Amino acid sequence: MKIVILNKPYDVLSQFRPDEKHPTMADFIDDPDLRIAGRLDMDSEGLMFLTDHGGLNQFITNPANKKFKTYLVQVDGDITEEALEQLRKGVELNDGMTLPAKAIKVAEPEWLWERHPPVRYRASVPTSWAEISICEGRNRQVRRMTAAVGFPTLRLIRTKIGSIDLVQLGLQPGETREIEPLLYSDFKDVPPEQPYRSRSYVKKPGGTGGKPMQKKVNKDGTAKKKSGTPRIWQMEEGEKPRRKTNGTTRPNTKSRGRRAR
Fold this sequence. Notes:
Elements (H helix, E strand, L loop, with lengths): L2 E6 L26 E3 L7 E7 L4 H6 L7 E8 L4 H9 L2 E2 L2 E2 L4 E5 L20 E8 L6 H8 L4 E9 L2 E2 H4 L6 E4 L82
Parallel strand pairs: 3-9
Antiparallel strand pairs: 1-3, 1-11, 2-3, 4-8, 4-9, 5-6, 7-8, 9-10
């Protein structure tokens, strides 16, 4: 299992597909085996990790696994203890109640890099900083949570995913580093990669969630032909059976539309 950490800069899209207006992950990662596990919005910054392990994304983002993601958040206004307590209890959003978050007020850290372009500045309205940790992965969740308690987010930087700490790694925006998964407790209980499971297989309580789809091969390595009668849609045009008649069958000339007037 390979894991690469990236400090995603502001205005970078979390995708490899080229974009005419914005830089993408392809500008920083050139390994075709790596896939994104845990995206960040274009206007968010900080820790992203990429992996070649197929099930790691779901493992990290599933709330049941309690893998907290920590964000340094600059908000509009001086955030109050009352607002922080609301975040700790859970906030009602348009897609339901959030799980309780960890939220504390912090000072602007010394290690923080400058953002380009900078956050808008208003002399009449102060800004403040909070550290918020959640174990969910809803769309723009932290931004919606702070707005719901009256303090819209101005800047958002993801600093941790589980025990992976961007500050400890010392990565500047745009820098990457490959890490050793065995050094992090978060990855000791990651399930092994499983073969594809068909959706037609009925999931049973306590089961594995689907029957593995494994390709059958002959001793020489060639694929085995499926037994049984092939379906019409699986046949070539010349193999399809033709309808047998006694010669008296007439073509269907009935109109299936409205009667002509």
